[in-house]
Specification:
172 residues; 4 helices
């Protein structure tokens, strides 16, 4: 099975949101995954607000996974505030926001591959801090980002009371 990683555009927001919803429906422990809706995805894909990626099954052309990076700037959603970054560093934070892989495509390293594509682009764009949140018990996602050099910087309630590790990777 082969995959092609492509950048998403604003016209991809509905299929991306639908895939996120399908994955959320498949998740056994709902506290582990916060599903973004179509409006959130649309707003994130607007120029300057975020970057989307999609993994396409090269055999079928089917959307297998999506990844959404958000650019929070100095908004209160910036995870840099959760770890005490100085105010002047907030513009250099990118949030590795949402990764969703359909069940039939898990085990092919798509989360890792999409994050690596994003990291290269974000580094070229001048971002210094890549951040994300993961439920502490979500071993697969947690191990995946730790393997990529992220470190747990805090554990706190986020997204309406859900416990999350806040992870950061500093780019040099």
């Amino acid at each position: 099975m082969g995959f092609r990683i492509e950048k998403a555009n604003i016209n991809d927001y509905i299929p991306m949101a639908e895939l996120i919803q399908k994955v959320w429906d498949q998740v056994e422990n709902k506290a582990w995954f916060t599903a973004d809706n179509a409006e959130y995805t649309y707003n994130a894909l607007q120029e300057g607000n975020g970057i989307g990626y999609k993994a396409i099954d090269t055999d079928t052309g089917k959307l297998a996974a999506i990844f959404l990076v958000t650019i929070p700037g100095k908004s209160k959603e910036n995870l840099g505030y959760d770890i005490g970054l100085p105010e002047e560093e907030m513009e250099y934070v990118a949030s590795m926001d949402s990764i969703a892989v359909l069940a039939e495509y898990r085990g092919h390293g798509l989360q890792y591959k999409m994050m690596q594509n994003a990291e290269a682009e974000l580094k070229d764009l001048g971002f210094r801090y890549l951040m994300c949140t993961i439920h502490p018990d979500n071993k697969f996602s947690r191990d995946n980002v730790l393997k990529q050099g992220y470190k747990v910087a805090a554990t706190k309630e986020k997204y309406g009371g859900y416990l999350r590790d806040v992870l950061v990777k500093t780019l040099l």
